[in-house]
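Hi C.,

You asked whether I'd gotten around to modeling the 257-residue construct. I have! Everything is below, sequence then structure, no commentary in between.
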Amino acid sequence: MLNKYEITRNWLPRYTGMPLEKFGQNILLTNFSNYVENFAEMFSCDIYGIGKPMQAATNDQGLTIINFGIGSSNAATIMDLLTAINPHGILFLGKCGGLKKSTEIGHFILPIAAIRGEGTSNDYFDPIVPALPSFKLHKFVSDKIIEHGYEYRTGVIYTTNRRVWEHDESFHERLKALTCIGIDMETATLFIVGHHNQLSRGALLLVSDVPVIPEGVKTEASDSHVTQNWADVHLKLGIESMMDLEGNGERIKHFRY
């Protein structure tokens, strides 16, 4: 296996436990096993990859959900592995920390861009290349959110490899100076590696905490509260967006540079 296509076609089933022919043409990505479990229960489909690095399930309408884990290295890995099937669209359903008063817990963010603070994406493009979603995919997701009567925010997400930073006041000041609306560990990587691999990609983020104030730092109890109150809506918006995208969405073209 000396070329990328051969490697990814071998490794995607190896990481997920799912045969290539079981993958759909539209993909939901998440960090949470309960999203995959709820998806499988909703559509009465099997979960593959129990005990493997990633778990996946596909419904009978050709939509696949994958729990790829946490962090930018895992984000890059799954976006490379998905070149094995060249999906029509990929939507990340993740959580993020809100950095503005306007990003209250439970609100959705549809990021217009992400700052590449993680470093992983530097292996794919020069740091000056912006991390952007596919506009047409985000436009379709936006329409679905509004159709269901929910609000969402737009803005720039800061993506970092650093998990424990909440105590660092100098880092807080840097985030403020960069005018970011939220912070996570995957979005910029997903956008850049998707761009590198010519894959349509987007992200619908759920604000799970407000880590810029002491009482807003995520705890087990606060995260459980967010999951109980908003995770089902988050997942359902992602499912409907990607299922309807196949039949009604605009075709997304890619250009080589």
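If it helps when you're writing up: The chain has a mean pLDDT of 90.

Thanks,
B.
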